[in-house]
Amino acid sequence: MAADPSPNNADLLWPYALPFFVYVGVASLPESWGITREANYALRIAATSAALAWSWRRTAPLRGPGSPWVSSLVGVAA
User: Fold this and answer.
1) CA dist 69 → 62, 63, 72, 74 (Å)
2) First-to-last CA distance in the chain?
3) Which residues neighbour 12 within 8 Å (Cβ) at sequence distance 6 or greater?
4) DSSP labels for 19-66?
5) Which run of H or of E encompasses 70?
6) Where residue 7 falls among pLDDT bands split at 50, 70, 90?
7) What's the pTM value of the predicted model, to 2 decimals?
8) Per-residue pLDDT tens for 51-62?
9) 19 C-beta neighbours (distance < 10 Å), count
10) Positive or negative: CA dihedral 64, 68, 73, 78
């Protein structure tokens, strides 16, 4: 019997959670460390973008079994 190619929830935890944790972690850095608000914001953008780039291929596709248009309409309706 062939293995199921779809990932389970444990496999998807880090690809979905890591960008959030990176954003919150960088946003939590205190200004007393010498990081200005502007630099913190730029660092958040860069670090979160890097985390999203890392997780891009590891996440599940966001469309359902139908066409993308049907999936989008169902999402809007929900």
Assistant:
1) 12, 9, 5, 9
2) 36
3) 58, 59, 60
4) HHHHHHHHHT--GGGT--HHHHHHHHHHHHHHHHHHHGGGSPPS--SS
5) helix 68-77
6) low
7) 0.67
8) 999 988 887 666
9) 19
10) positive
